[in-house]
Amino acid sequence: MALLDVNKLSIHFGGVKAVQEVSFSIDAGIVYAVIGPNGAGKTTLFNLITGVYKPTSGEIRLDGESIGGKSPNELATRGVARTFQNLQICMNMSAIENVMVGAHLRLDRNLLKAALRLPTLTRRDAEMRVEAAELMRFVGLEKYIEARADSMPYGALKRLEIARALAMKPRLIFLDEPAAGLNPKETIEVDELIRKVADSGITVVLVEHDMKMVMNLSDRILVLDYGKKLAEGTGEEVRRNPDVIAAYLGAHA
Amino acid sequence: MQKRAYFGLYIVIAVLAVLPLVVPNSFYLDLAIRMAINAVIVLGLNLLIGFAGQISLGHAGFLGIGAYASAVLPTHFGWHPLLAMGAGAAVTGLLAAVLARPIFKLKGQYLAMATLGLGIIINIAIRNEAAWTGGPDGMPVPTMGLMGFELASDKHWYWVVALMLSVSVWASINLIDSPFGRALRALHGSEVASQVVGVDVVRYKVAIFVMSAVFASLMGSVTAHYVGFVTPNLADFFHSIELVTMVVIGGMASVYGSLIGAVLLTALPQALATFEGWETVAFGVILMVCMIFMPKGLVPTLAAKFGKGD
């Protein structure tokens, strides 16, 4: 059985049908890419699956359990992590604290214990700080371990989001344009990072415009256009699909 | 960050310990007590406003509930003052928890309006229930006693309040640097990011709102017993604004900013008394100048200037 099963998923904003009857499924352990022209509904699809938007109709199943309409924090308890196309970093916190927030559900969140600084809680917190520093090294942010988030460059913040998502120890991670705005060198580094994440056993779902990266990384690709599924398959299948060529090159197939 | 934060706590404790030895007369001791009381309230309010990024314009209402619980319950029903204080805090906590759920579905100016309305309703209730509360004239409050020991003199109150303040500062620092505190700051920094990592944002907003309301209620009780008299002004809108101003002037999301804000704004009206009829104007001008040149508040601005984080 697939890890994620999406069946006839739709969302309408007033008259705008941003996502229409899209179905696909993702097996555990693969890298799955969602591509399509600007405005095709890729980010909307992510927002639907990660609970930021509630679907108008259709079904989303994670490991057989229906998760459509559940809130993001409920999905987080089920091991769903994500990053954002437009950065969502807490600029009022240090870089490492941003990563530690990712481990929210793995730590003791009791208010009273925290206020009284009970040793069990602080010990676990200290361990988490070490783990968060390791994660920052893993994503290539070793020189920002002591930094404040608001002093970091854009490319580093992109990775910080990935580190925060990894701190959740997710089963499934959604990366929304991880290479957007990065220079070619940084793009290659992020490419390698995503490979490492996938190799660690986490299922990766990717929205990305960098075709080289998509073709290089993905086991399967979903192509969206005007909110509808245009094609789905391996990189080779998608590349040869006449509808996809038409959508990208603007030809009338 | 943590070491420096606790270092600040030692300074606070040292200042509190030395202060009664150096104050020239009881006027200053009284001022110090009122500063410390405000500082505890402002600490709680700063957790809500500065750290969690929510606003409350009704906190004087909660303070009023605590103050009037301590006045009414012992006077009319013969309750022990400590029990009355606890009851006031419990009622405040319950009220805040029940109302916070719908209120925290709101954001920004709507949240400000809702909390403003709540504070005003509490104040009106206090003014109108004259049979119990003395109405606009207020009512006397019995002294607080503890196992045969009467808390009567300013010296006694000073040590009680100093202890409360020290514990509050310690607890606040602890809280901020814990999973709970990080979740609070994260929902301020990016609400959607905090949700995605599993923070139930409404629950956290409610929790910190209730906690800061209970702080205000407890200190309302302390104020009532210390002053020995309560009036509805304790619970009015202007008092709520004053408390929020202390948070903003001292510095949002700064523990020591809360203390500085409370100390300055409690002392300022006294210092400006020489201006006679113009003190309110001078007060307003000072606030405006502070906000124009130090929009982040005193402590964060100065800390940044001298290259240190808070």
User: Number of folding domains of chain A?
Assistant: 2
- Write down the secondary-structure element order of chain A: EEEHEEHEHHHHEHEHEEHH
Shape of chain B: globular
What is the share of helical residues of chain A? 25-40%
Got a strand count of chain B? 4
Helix percent of chain B reads over 70%
What would the principal axes of the Cα set say about the shape of chain A?
globular
Which CATH architecture of the largest domain in chain A? 3-Layer(aba) Sandwich
Cα-based radius of gyration of chain B, to the nearest Å? 19 Å
**Radius of gyration based on Cα positions of chain A:** 19 Å
Greatest interface: A-B, 45 and 32 residues
Q: Supply the CATH superfamily name of the largest domain in chain A.
A: P-loop containing nucleotide triphosphate hydrolases
Q: Roughly what is the average pLDDT of chain B, rounded to an integer?
A: 91
Strand portion of chain B: under 5%
The low-confidence runs of chain B, each spanning 5 or more residues with pLDDT under 50, are none
| Oligomeric composition of the shown chains | heterodimer
Biggest sheet statistics of chain A: 6 strands, mixed
Structural class of chain B: mainly alpha
The CATH topology label of the largest domain in chain A is Rossmann fold
